[in-house]
Design a protein that fits this description.
- With about 270 residues, this protein is an alpha+beta fold.
- The chain has eleven helices and six strands.
- Strands 1, 2, 3, 4, 5 and 6 form a six-stranded antiparallel beta sheet that branches.
- The longest helix has 26 residues.
- The two termini are about 20 Å apart.
Length: about 270
């Protein structure tokens, strides 16, 4: 699970997060919650420059805070923007150093995470305790857990479309989640779509797409092994689906991944 930050350096751009759209100018900050639909548009006549990064987090408490407290758009004068700005600017400078000092980069990343966590935690505390987590959030967490536990096999070689909605309701993995929540799979599907603007299967496919892109860009795993990890019966099925997602075959995507992209991994956790 990753959250995204985008800090506008110059010019103007339009951003949307979920169903909310906002015009941004220099000094404004966007924080995209994990798995939220979002996008950016720059007026070609004016242009814009910005610093954009994705940070992976596994802290369940912080993931939930992003779900419940993140407002997405933070103007230059907003307290969270003021708290994060120094670390974001330091991170941008650290990434430009040659040779790259990973410890310096990681220090700034950790401070961005900690400042965000502290701000959201304080905001949530002012609202009082929440007795229950939202059902849609629990559904999302269960989909992620099931995907990590074992591959969810794909029965189709084509990209998801509205015509496949019936397959979502009849799939075993969604039935399993529905039973845990003591609700019907149809109601499970409806709750998730209302909260995320997509079906549980679409959410799963986004997870698969992001995992595939990450593995192709930052690992040496074979395409066959990546296909198996994502639940495809063979590399050909995975290649057709990946091409439908991004317009390139897995091999072409791996070959054309920009070298300027920097991937940093945290220290391995002790067993």
């Amino acid at each position: 699970m990753m959250f995204e930050f985008l800090f506008v350096l110059d010019g103007k751009l339009t951003a949307f997060h979920g169903n909310v759209e906002q015009e941004l100018k220099a000094g404004d900050l966007v924080l995209i919650s994990p798995m939220q639909l979002h996008g950016y548009e720059v007026q070609q006549a004016e242009g814009a420059s910005f610093f954009d990064g994705h940070i992976q987090i596994e802290d369940e408490a912080l993931l939930h805070l992003f779900e419940t407290e993140n407002l997405a758009f933070y103007s230059k004068s907003h307290p969270l923007n003021e708290a994060l700005r120094p670390w974001i600017m330091d991170l941008m400078e650290a990434l430009q150093e040659n040779p790259l000092r990973s410890t310096k980069v990681m220090l700034n990343v950790l401070n961005i995470i900690e400042e965000s966590h502290s701000f959201f935690k304080n905001t949530a505390a002012k609202k009082g305790p929440k007795e229950h987590r939202e059902p849609a959030y629990i559904i999302a967490k269960e989909i992620e857990r099931l995907m990590r536990k074992s591959p969810i096999l794909e029965e189709t070689n084509t990209s998801f479309s509205g015509a496949e909605e019936g397959l979502v309701l009849g799939s075993n993995w969604l039935e399993e989640i529905s039973r845990q929540l003591n609700i019907s799979s149809r109601h499970c599907h409806r709750l998730f779509r209302q909260a995320y603007g997509m079906s549980p299967r679409q959410y799963l496919m986004i997870l698969k797409q992001q995992e595939a892109m990450q593995l192709l860009a930052s690992s040496n795993e074979t395409i066959e092994h990546i296909a198996y990890r994502l639940g495809y019966v063979n590399a050909q099925s995975f290649s057709r689906q990946f091409a439908a997602w991004v317009g390139y075959t897995p091999g072409a995507f791996r070959k054309n991944t920009p070298e300027a992209i920097t991937y940093l991994r945290s220290l391995p956790q002790s067993k």
